[in-house]
Fold these 4 entries.
Entry 1:
Amino acid sequence: QIHDRLTPAVAPPSTTMRAFVLALALVGASAFTPSSVRPLRVRSIIRAEEEAAAEEAAPVVEEPAPAPAPAPVDTRAYLETMYGGLGEPETGGKIPPMAYMVADMGTPGTMDFMRAAELKHARIAMIGFMGWVANIQNVHFPGMLSASKGISFESLESVNGVDAFFSMVPAEGLGQIFAFAAVFEWYEMTHKDGKWNGNNALQGEIVPNINKWDILGFTEGKTEDDLKRVKLQELKNGRMAMIGTLGCVAAATIPGSVPFLTGSI
């Protein structure tokens, strides 16, 4: 009893004191908590703020304005600037009226197509005219044209070239000729600068000399002026060959139509 009297009574801690002690414990523990366990929302906010700051700091790059569309080219003026046009003294400063009529109905692309066709026919006519000259001079290949049908190259000299082509050459021979020509035609219509280009006709990309056929290298090392002169010579010679070939065909089918060739074809 004496001991109980001398020992003071200790009151239990209050609820406020307990809450205060628990808060201090939590604050102290959070100092040792790894950053990897931060709430996801806090990390998302921080990341968004960093990205926004980076976007504001990045310089703004303005896209260049598109180039203006080229002005339309007058078709007549384009025709006059093509080689073989008014700009060349060899033409006498003249262009046939029909060429202007074609120019008025089309575009510069139309003139490129027409010039490419003219050049192609000119090259074929030059080969054809030399064939007529060889026939007139009785120059022919040795051997047989068709062994199965008994037709020799020499026997073709007994008739003119037109009759020989349509009546003496077998159908298989005509098929080989057209197939050979078709391969070159297909290549010209689908290639550009020696590479596949799709359908040049539908794409409007048929131009003179779209592919280089200079196998023997005649144009190697030539200047632009030399090439211009050679192209004009080829065009002029081809035009003359087309006229000459038609003259030979007329002389062979219409007797007396070409007095100079009477009795020769």
Note: The first strand starts at residue 144 and ends at 146.
Entry 2:
Amino acid sequence: MMAPQAPSTPTNNAANGVPIEGVSGEANAAVAAPLRFEDLTIDDDLPLLERVVRYCRSGIALQRLVHVKMLAETADAVGANATIQSLTSLLPPLVNDPESIIRQHLASQLLPLSLTCLYNSQKVTTRSPHNERGYKLLTTTLLAHLHTLITDHDVDVRRAASDSISVLALHISPEDVPSLILSIPIRLAAKKENTTDDNGLAEELRITSANLLGELAALHDVKQVLPKLVSKYITPSLLSLCQDPNFRVRRSAVQALPRVLGGSHPQDVEQKLLPAFCQLASDDMYRVRKSVGECLVDMSRSLMLLPARMVSALSATSKEDEERELEILKEKMMELRRNTLVPVATQLLNETNKFVRHGMMQFLGPFIASFYPLERSFKNVQDAKSGESLSGILGMPQEESGSSPTSS
């Protein structure tokens, strides 16, 4: 399966001192001017847009950092047109800034800046019509900048870019999600070590990919990434990461499995995801096995939330048929949970490695509680009031009639 192509990286014109449209010649001249004593101070009398344009291109890192943090509020103040004309031209040199803290904050600022270009506002609560010019800029330029940042050497830069991409996926047209959004983690998951790779960057990128795949699979709640997309694009990539030779990548894949499971088709859950989870419970590296125990609660909850999320995919023609199919699916998920997750928990509780064993013990209580639905607890209380003892409901041995718990 070939991964969709990612957007190409835009040409870096601003780095060559090309004048920026919409700002004064004085602000543009700041690029070529030699550093003077006056440059160490900030001119607060400049209008907000002029100030950000000047100091985002400053030769002083602290000035660039302060004004990169102001990109979002500036975009919100000047609106979509001025943002597209002036602010976006500042981005190419900042994406490749030598200071990682500047690249990190730029990755965070690209999210609200993109929303301004799309909607002329950063306070978007519902799906609004796209600004066509802003949408084109997002899909051809801004996502390319985020693609560059998510391959950065610094982990904080990658994390900030990943967070921005996962939120922007909500605002991409569903038909564009595979080619523009899903292509990014898929390409990262395919990164392999080579002689030119320095300091294990390919491994770090695969870890970033696992986390982003989980975040994108979780978008099924808003029907932005449907189960068929999860099955076609996300699941194969995550399964390959589950078999990665590096244990840190496998551990990240384990942590992403509950989120991917929640957005998958039940058939994929039974035939692909749960077998991969069980295999990782017997991994050679104890840190991977420990992560399996830590994820058992989330796996249990995701399995029981899956039927409700699959209601729209049921083939029922009436309300009664839908309820019947939903109940059958619930029973199937409960059986899968009992037959798969309980043996995994038992295996980890009997581990020879104390870190794995103690880690599983910490999550044993929440894991057991995830098997006890709230509606059943109400029924059990009613049964207890009607005469059946609570110990009988829970399967505990009951005392013989006439005996007293205080008798000697």
Note: The chain is about 65% helix and 0% strand.
Entry 3:
Amino acid sequence: MASSNSLIKTSTQHVCDYCQSLSTEPSYKTSLPLPNQSQSIVNLKRCSRCHLVRYCSIRCQKAHWKAGHKAVCLPTSIKAPTLSPTQNPHVRLLPPSFTNLLQEKKNYIFVNSADLYDTNLLILLHGAGDSSLPFSKFATKLALPQTTTLAISAQLFEKLPFELGFTYFNEMDYNTGHKLQCSDPKRMKSLQNAVEKLSKMIRTLSEVWIPERIFLFGFSNGACLAMETALSWSYNRIDSIVLGGAICVAGGIRYLEENKDAKLT
């Protein structure tokens, strides 16, 4: 490293490679929210040795150097080898605890961000009887910047009768063919189990992504699960840890109605 405090200005700004503070570049203000850094928009400077990483301060540069940048920082005069996506320091992989929990790859579809900056994670949940594939394709077409996507199948949750596929929780009494009321104990128990199971998955994912950078997108049955899970994290949060947010289509809050008047602190 040329010098620990040697930084030069850069015209192309992203986020600080150590603390993830957002730069003042307008094009990056349109990406998914970065909750922790929303109050401190800063100018970034890049490493004067390799010109590949950017920092908001000398302190972050020194910390990143000790954390591992020292091993990969090469002077611009030395041609660095081309990195594959799995070697790129900005590309993140699913933690083993998550893959072990979901048992088989058919239970999820994981796609890294197109720009190879996996800052955020978007989890997609499909409707009853559907599959994760069309939702993964939908997320790929969105091409959200700095966002990797994870479509989770309901195969590990509840199986529908008559070969209708899978659902995250039961919304019907298949013995009578009637829809279960929102307050029906069977529906509430099934939904609560689904929330706990998804939350367990999210806790393993938080080994790689902090919860504030994990977002949920759900449709119908998946939308209800997404909103219930996000709300559950809000009520049960520890040290102000909450999820980044939830986007729900054709679904909403059903289970935690008894807490609708509760105040979040």
Note: Helices lie at 58-72, 96-102, 133-142, 185-205, 221-235.
Entry 4:
Amino acid sequence: DSLGINILIEMNGYTQHARPELVAHSSAPLRISFLGFAHSLMSPFVDFMVTDSTATPTDLWRSPERAMLFPFTFYLTNHASSFHASHLSSPSSLPHVTKTQVGLREGSFVFASFNQPFKITPELFDVWMRILVLVPDSQLWLLKLNEGEEAEEHLRLRARSLGVEDWRLFFTGSAALEDHIGYKSAADLMLDGVVFNGHSTVADTLWAGVPVLTIAGTRMAARTCTSLLQGVHYGQGTMNHLTVARDLSDYQRIAVRLGLCPSCMSRLRRKLVHSRLSSPLFDTERWVGDWERGLKMAWEIR
């Protein structure tokens, strides 16, 4: 185009502070939507959307853009390189933060939602409360970020109405960047949002060695976690299916089963920790190679 741009990468979509009009008015010969908006832009001004066959199966594809499909997961991480020189550089040296250090009850089974509170729907929260009731002495760890201060009061009121004691809901703020992954290791199982999944939150939690439970929804935003699980558990048999539920009923069943089976959780967590550094999700070099091949193919067929 007039600015000398051959490939324009759009990374904001329709999120806050986005500038989609720049893409619409660009004359770049190739325009690609990538990462920042987990859905099609439904725009004739975008040529390709970066995704994978798990995040957007072909039978769910209803978009004007063409799909640039990654072979494993479309999601980019840099955990292995970022923590290369630190104590997080290998599975065996992952710091173990105790529940007591965080403020949780030692010996309790800790479910966690590290997503922002706006991802919690009333129906999902009620399922979480039923899980707590069915798993004695378990706790739910929640973050109070942004609107979370006000959300805490409302969530506690709802929990009480469902017979869940106050101590079983544990709220914390955000941790320092260098500490937050270590803190996450105190949880036993992350419960993902089902309308809008966690993205970087899920990647951080998996890197901390904590399994994540999700539902494979019908939209990319509700299937991103499934994509990440495919990326970290790929080649590990059916492990990823153990924590990908069909619906909320199945989600509750899996959470309760894992909460009541310490040996199941131990095997799942051990397998996750040992698969991290060899998995596509945390192999940045492999992802970059797939990205370069994808760009070349998109340029050739544009």
Note: The longest helix spans residues 284-301.
